Amino acid sequence: MTTPTPQVIARRTGATLDARMARVAARVADYPGLPVDDGSRYSVRRLTAAWLLEAESVHTEKAHDRDLDTFLRWCAQERLDPLAARPTDLGQYRVWRELEGAGGRTAKAATVARALASVSSWYTHLVVNTGGRVARNPAAGVKRPKVAHHSPTAGLTSDEVDALLDQADRETASRAASAEAQPTPARHARHLAALRDRALLRLLADLGLRISEALDRDVHELSHNAEKRTLRFLAKGKEERERPLPPHTLEAIDEYLAIRAANIGVAVADLTGPLFATTGIAGTAGRLAEPNVFIRLRRLAAAAGIASAARLSPHSLRHAFATAAREAGVPLEDVQDAMGHADPRTTRRYDRDRHNLDRDPSLVLGANRALRRVAASSTASPERRSGEDEGLRP
């Protein structure tokens, strides 16, 4: 695959930013209950758009958008001016999310906590930037529901990961044969979707990326470094990272992009847009959404005969990556770096063998002490050894 020139990358990056800004502006314009944009730099709507764009990732931006939209629509329902809300109003909003919710959809503790955090972040942004128009953050003192920080993720063994990827291979081959036998646009699109899903699953399994880190990537972020093919990405916390792509992953990505480029009549080097794109018959490239990945992952897992198929998520592959790496003897710090964990304790949660009694430090220390005694005994003088031997006789 030919590496795009810096000028091409800059043009593509600019187009992506323009599209994101346009999307955010449209969403903010649709929010109820906020003052009409008066055109000033510090109007509430413009500050809200800036707050969304300053999110640490597109994934966070979309979560903030959903949370703020839900809150503002609740305020409209309650005939409450959100800029005049008080802590008691935010407390009532929390109860509403927990017991009723929009359309009767109640929310779990983690969802409510995240929603309150989003709204609190928005208020803080307004307090800092409105010059006193919004004087306080009413969400700051609202008690948030307790959340279990170590909620269990349905795991996958290495054999199950292999079975899942094998099933993706079989589906890709089946759809390729179908498209060759009856070459219709719909069959070609189904084949391309299978190629994309196979490439995405291999990327998640082989690199252990977060699903947002994978889906937010654009084609131009495939790169080269030190004679290796790499993927550049913006990780959690806006950290710029670069990971090498193993041959197993590259094979699937290259085949997917080659077919995708051929379907629209361009060279692979001229492809633009999301790395993992939706595959409409018209050939337009939209960004694959996270819920769709859940559906495809579970369907393939069920077809592969994996018992936990209905509970799996993309994070299951990240979990499996870390667990397999530790079981293979990869040092904890290397797994931590690959996962992008700031705290090694987070990485250790994936170390399935950490409670193995054979790894207890007491056994290591005991073995070392025995070795020291043997060494000391072997270097003792003949007279001392003789005396020791005499003392042991009955």
Describe the structure.
By secondary structure, this protein is mostly helical. The chain folds into 3 domains: 124 residues, no CATH class; 191 residues, Orthogonal Bundle (hpI Integrase, Chain A), CATH 1.10.443.10; 34 residues. The chain has 15 helices and 3 strands. Strands 1-2-3 form a 3-stranded antiparallel beta sheet, with no helix packed on it. Strand 1 and strand 2 form a beta hairpin. The termini are far apart. The N terminus and C terminus are likely disordered.
Overall average pLDDT: 84
Major sheet description: 3 strands, antiparallel
Shape: globular
Helix content class = 55-70%
Number of domains: 3
Structure annotation, total helices: 15
The CATH fourth-level homologous superfamily of the largest domain: Intergrase catalytic core
Features:
394 residues; mainly alpha; hpI Integrase, Chain A; 3 domains; 3 strands; disordered C terminus
Please give the structural blueprint:
Layout: H1 6-29, H2 44-53, H3 58-77, H4 87-99, H5 109-129, H6 158-181, H7 185-207, H8 211-215, E1 222-225, E2 228-235, E3 239-244, H9 247-264, H10 290-303, H11 314-327, H12 332-339, H13 344-348, H14 361-379, H15 382-392
Helix pairs in contact: 1-2, 2-5, 3-5, 6-7, 6-10, 7-9, 7-11
